[in-house]
Amino acid sequence: MTGTSSNDKFKKDGATMKSDQKRWDKRFGRKEFALGKKPNSFLKKHIRLLPKGKVLDIATGEGRNAVFLSQHGFEVDAMDISERGLKKAQKLAREKGVKINTFLVDLDQYQIEKERYDLIANFYFLKRRFIPRIKKGIKKGGKVIFETYILEHRTLGAGGPKQAKYFLKPNELLRLFKDFRIQLYREGIFKEGGRKKAVASLIAEKI
Ligand SMILES: C[S@@+](CC[C@H](N)C(=O)[O-])C[C@H]1O[C@@H](n2cnc3c(N)ncnc32)[C@H](O)[C@@H]1O
Nearest 5°: phi and psi at 80? Predict the structure, then answer.
């Protein structure tokens, strides 16, 4: 695995990938942190349930969760398709005085090395085809922490993705990890940073 590399690597991957990269680079192009610097509240609340060691934060964005994990003693690899996001993630790490390893990666093309990680974190990135790769990449006894929107989020008028494919159906996240031991699961409407969101959140162990 290599570190942050040049955009040229991605040109061959075609229009969809390039538009994802462009869209997110644009969103992360401003000085302010589009997704904030504070970690996800489910992660923060349950950090003690997570096995210390090597963690992969997939689709890390501007690194709010990756940096928080590093502050709590995890050895963090953080991947994303947005170079601007990764630069901001490194900036946030410097601000907080911690280290994270960032990788410019198109996860549509990426295979996680088998049983490389004690923990994989997946926040607000839903590619169903990628789930088997997450499972493979976790060590036996390791865990996944996952949170993203459920369909009801669209009725809240609270932002988020537009296309239906980016929302989980009822109990879908449970089903996706049914071969893991589910340690914690919730699904519904919750408040974070004073705003409502409809999400499913899970912590599960590879058995
Ligand atoms: C909603 S943001 C979530 C960021 C972060 N996980 C968080 O919760 O703050 C979705 C992220 O997915 C990344 N992304 C989208 N498509 C990707 C792909 N094909 N490969 C890698 N990252 C991708 C975007 O660049 C963006 O940072």
Answer: -165, 160
Amino acid at 114: K
| 100 φ, ψ (degrees, to nearest 5) | -135, 150
Q: Which two tokens stand for residue 162?
A: 């537009």
124 lines ligand 1 (CB under 6 A): yes
Determine whether the shortest distance from the Cβ of 146 to ligand 1 is under 6 A: no
Q: How far is the CA of 164 from the centre of ligand 1 (A)?
A: 17
Over residues 139-196, the pLDDT tens digits come to 999 999 999 999 999 888 767 888 889 999 999 999 999 999 999 999 999 988 788 9
Q: Cβ(152) to ligand 1 under 6 A?
A: no
The finding on whether 24 has its CB within 6 A of some atom of ligand 1 is yes
pTM tops 0.90: yes
